[in-house]
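Worked problem 6 (solution included).
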Amino acid sequence: MVWHRLLGALIIAPVVVGALGVLIERLLLRHLHQLDHLYGLLVTFGLALMAEGFFRWAFGISGAPYPIPAALQGGVDIGIMYLPLYRAWVVVASLIVCFATWYVIERTPIGARLRAATERPRLTQALGINVPVMVTATYAVGVALAAYAGVLAAPIMQVNPVMGSNLIIVVFAVVVIGGMGSILGSIVTGLGLGLLEGLTKVFYPEASAIVIFVVMVMVLLVRPAGLFGKTA
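Solution. The predicted structure is:
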């Protein structure tokens, strides 16, 4: 029963949130495409704060537990640490989706059209590609993936209004270290920093909260564009 609930949420939540993303893009973000990207960031951040405030008011801040399927409860001793089975499953499921996304964008015709629409929208439109539809679809898939990640994180963090905002700074650090615009960079950096943070919690817990930001400062000092970012 718990498996059915989890798998159902992994399908329903991305679909619902993706549809909400389409609505936001069509009603708000579409009017900001000609402006600096900072405006879109501010609008979406403001919407996130409004949504967080609403759910705080409606459901409180304590959160609700989300059960782990029986088959993924417990863990295994791998020598240097005790690895929970559910966390291992989350890593595998996340990597599959991440690399599938990278493959679609970097190795398929639809990904080539998407990159062209992002970098040269007017030229791409002149070639007969419907750029506004592609932008909307991309935004929908992006927020759907965020919902997918939220469902995976729910049994670990509980379902609460701040489960996203607690991670947004870390996610920003991962993107900066990997390089803005590099999906592969974000995937590799996210996995590497996750392992680094986990090992830091084992061997030196006091530094686990800042180790990611220390790495970010060191990388930016040596390579401002990020590890996989393109230099100007």
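Discussion: The CA atoms of residues 197 and 211 lie 7 Å apart.
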